[in-house]
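INFO  loader      accepted 1 record
INFO  loader      residues=231
INFO  predictor   begin
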Amino acid sequence: MIRLVFTTTAIITSSSALYFYIFHDRLSKRITHKSHTGTLSSAPTRPSIESVPEPVFSDDYFTIYDHASKSVPRASLPGSETTDVLFTRLVRRNMRAFSRSPQALMLAMASKTPEQKDSFGAGYLAALDFEVGDLVCGAYRVVVRNRDRVEFEIKVETVDFVQGRLAISYEEDGIQDEERNVVFCSETVMWKKAGEVRKMPLERPALKWMHEIVSWWLLDSGVSYLGDLEG
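INFO  predictor   done
INFO  writer      dumping tokens
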């Protein structure tokens, strides 16, 4: 009986790992992605996140930066709403979807205050305009809100030696409506003091891999969600 349990568990675990490996590979082909580890100033492209403190770009800090983007024709999105309204819809939908992820479950378990606990609610997230000060999923506080951008400060009490930002944004290119593309972006940066030996979550390969799956899927499925609104 014990051998059967172990065998069954091994099969399920192997099947799940294979599924997520294939899923990760497929997602990587549907979006554009890049990452950088080390000094942020040496990154090939300077992150567009406005709220990263300038000292973080010095050698005094060790950083991990992840960038994902997806470009779609503006004509494939609903024409009845402006792009900035659609962007808010995207962020609301993606944060509701994230609130059901394994990462959010761990954050919910660590939440202590009523504000933190309430910030996972589907109704709460569906009504947010993501104004500066709003809290999302216990650990993401809005610090920048522009028409085309939301930036969150990432603050998790159990890893207080790490600071970070999550930015969701878009930009449009092209002049005429039928030729315009909209590029939706998701950026994450984490940093710690250069001499800190404790590992940040994204320094751990398994957690970084899961982060990629979740962030890439949210971006890919979120854009698909916007396209489906026209129907």
